TrEMBL record:
It comes from the Eukaryota. Homomultimer. Associates with the dally/ magu complex. Signal peptide: none annotated. This is Calcium channel flower. Keywords: Calcium, Calcium channel, Calcium transport, Cell projection, Cytoplasmic vesicle, Endocytosis, Endosome, Ion channel, Ion transport, Membrane, Transmembrane, Transmembrane helix, Transport. The keyword Transmembrane applies.
Length: 188
């Protein structure tokens, strides 16, 4: 058993299903969870700082700060329920969110991150705090796309249905791809 398998086994949730996560690299799973956890703490702190817009009578920034703090709390509940163990329903919500496909989590995090940008666009605390939640959504979106195809799969797709091992077309043929005949694009 390799070191990454041992770490994955230690970090996995008890009774959690890891079937959909088999095709995702381990570093991307930890990047999503790590950015979600750290980013939500930062979003909560910067949301509190953003609420100081009340002193300048900027109601939009006040509402954006409140939204950002709530979004940070929702992300931390989903990504690191151990930080909120004193609330009894957190583990249930976290387990439900963990069972969802990656694209659901991506849409949820991006939707949580966007409203503060529209309410208080010029604040750096909005850009940085909600931007980290948005980045978590982007990472989960990339995880939903899955791994890149192998070289042979990509070559087969570029050949537009030409089976591997089929004879190459003549250089004058316009349907020849660069993968099939590199002499098509080489200078004389």
């Amino acid at each position: 058993m390799s070191l990454t398998d041992k770490i994955t086994m230690l970090m996995s949730r008890p009774g959690g299903e890891n079937a959909q996560k088999d095709d995702v690299p381990w570093w991307m799973r930890y990047a999503g969870r790590g950015l979600g956890t750290v980013g939500s703490f930062i979003a909560i702190i910067l949301g509190l700082f953003n609420c100081l817009g009340l002193l300048t009578f900027n109601v939009g920034c006040l509402v954006a700060g409140i939204w950002q703090m709530l979004a940070g709390f929702m992300v931390i509940v989903c990504e690191a329920p151990c930080c909120c163990f004193f609330i009894d329903y957190v583990q249930i919500l976290s387990d439900r969110m963990e069972a969802r496909p990656y694209w659901n989590k991506a849409i949820f995090y991006v939707a949580l991150a966007l409203p503060p940008f529209f309410l208080c666009f010029l604040s750096l605390s909005t850009w940085f705090g909600s931007g980290m939640i948005f980045g978590t959504g982007v990472i989960y979106g990339m995880m939903a796309l899955g791994r890149k195809g192998s070289r042979s799969d990509m070559a087969a797709m570029a050949a537009a249905g030409t089976p591997p091992g089929a004879p190459l077309a003549a250089s004058g043929d316009h349907n020849v791809t660069l993968m099939e005949d590199p002499d098509v694009w080489r200078p004389n």
